[in-house]
Structure formats: C-alpha cells, structure tokens
Design a protein that fits this description.
This protein has 245 residues and is an alpha/beta fold. It has one domain: Rossmann fold (3-Layer(aba) Sandwich). Helix content is 47%, strand content 16%. A seven-stranded parallel sheet has the order 3-2-1-4-5-6-7, sandwiched between helices. Bound molecules: NADP nicotinamide-adenine-dinucleotide phosphate (NAP). The site of NADP nicotinamide-adenine-dinucleotide phosphate has 28 residues, from helix 1 and helix 5.
Length: 245
C-alpha cells in the first residue's frame, strides 16, 4: 500500500497543486477542509488522473475540540499515513487590524487552529519515529507591515511554532519543514493591490513536494523571496516605520 499524505485546507489552490504533485509520485491522499462537495470533486479528479487512493473528510481549523477525533478518523482510513501538509488559511481584510472581533478569526484559523492540529499530528508521528510535517506559513510572518499585520502576526507565530516542533521532533526522526511562499496567484490574493513577482500555484505545489528530497528546513518559494525578505528584515526600524508597506 502506498504511503498516504494528509492535506489540510485541501480546496486551496496551492494545496490542490501540492496534492497533484504527491499523487503524481503515487502517494495516497486524505483531503480535508470545510467544503465537502469541493473535496469530493478534487478527490474524484485525482483518482481519475493519477489512479491513487484518495479519501476526504470535513475539517474546521477553528473547531479545535474536534481535531483529536478528526486525526483518529484519518488514521483509521489510512493506517499508512506518512506525512501531512498544513495549507489552510484565512487572510481576512483591513478590518482585522481595526476590529479585534474580525482579527481573532484570522488568529484562530492561522495560528490557534494550526497549533492544535499540529500538536495532535506531532504526538501521532513522534512515537512512530517517522513521518513529515509540512507547514505553509508566509513571508508575511517575517516582518509586521501595516497592510496585513494581524495575518502576519499569526503566520509569524506559526513559523516559530514549526521551528520549535522541528527542534522537538528532530530526535525522533520526524521531519518538520516550514514553507514561506511569496505572492501566489490564488483566490487569497485575487484583486489585491501591490502584488509583484506572482508565482503560479502549480509551481509552488511542485516545489513543496520537491523539498522532501532536500535537507532544507525553511524554504522560501520561489527561492528569491529569501533574499527579498532578508533585505526587508534588515531595514532599520526608524526607516521601516515610515514606509507604506
Ligand atoms: N496565495 C498567496 O499569495 C500566499 C502567500 C503566502 C502564503 N500563502 C499560504 O499558502 C497556503 C495556501 O494558500 P492559498 O492562497 O492557496 O489559499 P486559498 O486559495 O485562499 O485557500 C485557503 C483554504 O483554506 C481553507 N480554510 C479556510 N479557513 C479554514 C478553516 N477554518 N478550516 C479549514 N480550512 C479552512 C479554505 O477551504 P474551505 O473553504 O474548503 O474550508 C480554503 O480553500 C495558506 O496557508 C496561505 O496562508 C499563500
């Protein structure tokens, strides 16, 4: 039986491309998000195109009290689970910064919900002494900017969480990879002003799967975002605070 990969937020454009890249390698898949009808369509398409086993199920990042039972149902369906990709996200809008009742949803899905399911996955893989966890964070988490600092703060916290998890799981042989995409052409960025060097979800999905055959821990996608963010992170705060970013 081929090794199975759990994809959370599987209806996202980047997740679809990642799922297709895993399926092309022959991996079985468990797709999860809140939209069952769309999951059914994606699963049928992947089975047809790649001939792999694909299961799907409902998962809500914000419903943290359901996460333990959710992971148990995944493992029951796919006892050969070898890894997971955390791809769900809620960007929110400008209101998130002014109105905390909106901002809390951004934090709840991007960080609290992510930390919850990651902790269950880590507890599952750790005693098995194998497996991988790929967490999709964002370059937005590298430095706070006025245009999206609530989302950025949640992603920055996720990056730190993944870093700690990597440190914890290293001894057990479980690999933890942090992916930091720049701008990608998806529903999340559609119509946003100021986008540049926008990558296709297909290219990002393929690179995400390719990281498993490399030794990198933190991967910027495309690669040049590492250098863009290096520059942005080193702009002195007295200058940075005056910039319109
Ligand atoms: N697009 C970019 O430029 C960009 C840049 C940097 C990082 N990223 C990151 O890359 C990942 C994928 O991004 P994308 O642009 O492909 O996303 P997207 O198309 O906006 O999709 C996000 C997905 O998250 C799922 N989702 C939202 N809230 C959820 C919740 N509470 N529980 C479960 N699923 C939930 C939604 O699925 P359902 O509605 O089916 O539940 C949706 O399909 C995200 O982590 C994002 O932060 C994207």
């Amino acid at each position: 039986m081929s090794e199975a990969v759990l994809i959370l937020g599987a209806t996202s454009a980047i997740a679809r491309a990642t799922a297709a890249a895993f399926a092309a390698r022959g991996n079985a898949l468990y797709l999860a998000s809140r939209d069952e009808e769309e999951l059914r369509r994606i699963a049928a398409d992947l089975r047809l195109r790649y001939g792999v086993e694909v299961h799907y199920g409902l998962f809500d990042a914000e419903a943290t009290d359901t996460h333990e039972a959710f992971l148990k149902s995944v493992v029951t369906a796919m006892p050969n689970l070898s890894g997971m990709v955390l791809a769900f996200s809620y960007l929110g809008d400008q209101q998130a910064a002014r109105d905390f009742s909106v901002g809390v949803k951004v934090i709840a899905s991007n960080f609290t919900g992510a930390a919850s399911i990651l902790s269950h996955c880590a507890n599952y893989f750790e005693p098995l002494q194998r497996g991988f966890i790929i967490g999709i964070s964002s370059v937005a988490g590298d430095r706070g900017r006025q245009s999206n600092y609530v989302y950025g703060a949640a992603k920055g916290a996720l990056s730190l969480y993944l870093q700690g998890l990597r440190n914890r799981l290293y001894a057990s042989g479980v690999r933890v990879i942090t992916i930091k995409p720049g701008f990608v052409d998806t529903a999340m960025t559609y119509g946003l002003p100021g986008l540049f060097l926008v990558a296709s979800p297909q290219a990002i999905g393929e690179r995400i799967v390719a990281t498993l055959s490399k030794s990198a821990d933190v991967v910027y996608l495309p690669w040049f975002w590492r250098y863009i963010m290096l520059i942005i992170k080193h702009i002195p705060e007295p200058i940075f605070k005056r910039m319109k970013l």
